[in-house]
């Protein structure tokens, strides 16, 4: 457990650092207007929807690099890093183009007119940070798979401080700089993500040189068989993460059809839930590395133990999180805005969100453990059914047909998450049992 905690804590803090950057944007823009909260919320949700697809495709690097590390294949580790960077560059092209296209056609989404213009301003600029985010993620995943987690955390702290300064100047308008509102917030985030990528890339070069493992040639020549392998493993994970994040991005767009107060409350609760989600996401990432490393060393029993310990850790934290949602929801809303209508709506939504916290922890960590086994397809199918065929339709019907408003939308989202968690848990139990049986028969044969 101590070994797992040493790996988990820096990863969790790194994910929190990524998430806090978006929360800072919302907080600063919220000081200017309630409409700005919804605008940055919609823009960041759509950007996040596209980003998580790329992150999902790249997430297989955790398994592949940790597996190569367990097998002592240093050259393979470097080759995976090179090809991962190349894949991230290839992915960023259509993803950025898609975001810009959406930003120019948002008038067709039915978003409240008071929110629309600011949303377009924010999204059109923040779209250009896609390539920086993906390359940074390749660097972070590579180091995480090697058990090196602190540098990414330190760099994220620095980037967040830079983002705070940028928002302070460009959103509020300080020290002679005019206020640019949501557009200024996007500029600050864009610059912060570029600096993150650059700093972590420099660190990897220093790290490899110090370890005397620096490759003689840093080449990005495409290795098509390896690229094919990365896409074959990563595409199901990318689709799984897209299905999960996409349902919340679409829910945010649907909330944009309600009042600005509803949208602001939705975004505040979603940001808070996303913040707590970073903890099991970090645990799941550590589980993927630990399980993949154990599989590489042919230690199946240890892989199963790491998976179950990670699940207990994730569920335990989210149980505590649900209590905070039940007791402190209204106080969290008032931290972002003094609007009484937003506070009243947000308090109700926090109570609903509190019920799915444990399920969110189980499905996230379970997905990471399955990824450590090289299984990305089952999570993809489970998320498609649970979120898109059950959760979102139920939420939409409750919200618009039965006139339950934002609360109805969140009830549907909660139902989908609970069903996904149960299915992921069953799949992990089945896979882990099969691994232990392999070990059992191996012992009998020896």
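Q: What amino acid sequence fits the structure above?
A:
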């Amino acid at each position: 457990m101590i070994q797992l905690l040493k790996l988990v804590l820096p990863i969790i803090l790194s994910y929190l650092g990524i998430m806090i950057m978006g929360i800072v944007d919302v907080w600063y823009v919220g000081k200017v207007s309630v409409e700005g909260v919804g605008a940055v919320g919609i823009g960041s949700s759509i950007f996040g929807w596209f980003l998580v697809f790329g992150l999902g495709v790249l997430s297989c690097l955790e398994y592949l690099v940790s597996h190569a590390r367990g097998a002592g294949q240093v050259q393979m580790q470097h080759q995976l890093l090179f090809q991962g960077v190349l894949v991230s560059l290839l992915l960023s092209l259509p993803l950025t183009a898609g975001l810009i296209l959406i930003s120019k056609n948002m008038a067709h989404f039915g978003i409240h007119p008071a929110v629309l213009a600011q949303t377009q301003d924010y999204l059109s600029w923040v779209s250009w940070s896609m390539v920086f985010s993906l390359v940074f993620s390749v660097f972070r995943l590579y180091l995480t798979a090697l058990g090196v987690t602190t540098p990414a955390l330190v760099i994220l702290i620095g980037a967040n401080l830079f983002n705070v300064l940028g928002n302070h100047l460009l959103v509020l308008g300080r020290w002679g700089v005019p206020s640019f509102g949501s557009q200024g917030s996007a500029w600050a985030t864009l610059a912060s993500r570029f600096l993150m990528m650059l700093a972590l890339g420099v660190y990897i070069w220093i790290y490899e040189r110090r370890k005397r493992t620096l490759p003689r040639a840093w080449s990005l020549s495409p290795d098509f068989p390896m690229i094919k392998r990365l896409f074959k493993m990563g595409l199901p994970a990318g689709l799984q993460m897209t299905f999960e994040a996409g349902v919340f991005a679409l829910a945010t767009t649907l909330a944009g059809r309600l009042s600005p107060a509803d949208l602001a409350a939705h975004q505040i609760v979603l940001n808070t839930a996303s913040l707590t989600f970073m903890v099991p996401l970090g645990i799941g990432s550590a589980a993927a590395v630990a399980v993949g490393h154990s599989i590489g060393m042919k230690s199946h029993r240890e892989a199963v133990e790491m998976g179950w310990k990670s699940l207990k850790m994730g569920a335990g934290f989210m149980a505590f999180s649900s209590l905070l949602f039940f007791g402190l929801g209204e106080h969290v809303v008032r931290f972002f805005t003094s609007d009484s209508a937003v506070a009243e709506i947000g308090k109700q939504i926090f109570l609903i969100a509190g019920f799915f916290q444990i399920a969110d922890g189980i499905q996230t960590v379970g997905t990471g453990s399955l990824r450590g086994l090289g299984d990305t397809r089952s999570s993809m199918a489970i998320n498609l059914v649970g979120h898109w065929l059950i959760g979102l339709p139920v939420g939409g019907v409750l919200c618009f047909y039965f006139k339950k408003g934002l609360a109805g939308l969140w009830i549907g989202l909660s139902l989908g998450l609970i069903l996904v968690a149960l299915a992921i848990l069953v799949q992990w139990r089945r896979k882990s049992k099969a691994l232990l049986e392999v070990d059992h028969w191996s012992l009998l044969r020896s």
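Q: And what stands out in the fold?
A: The mean pLDDT is 80.
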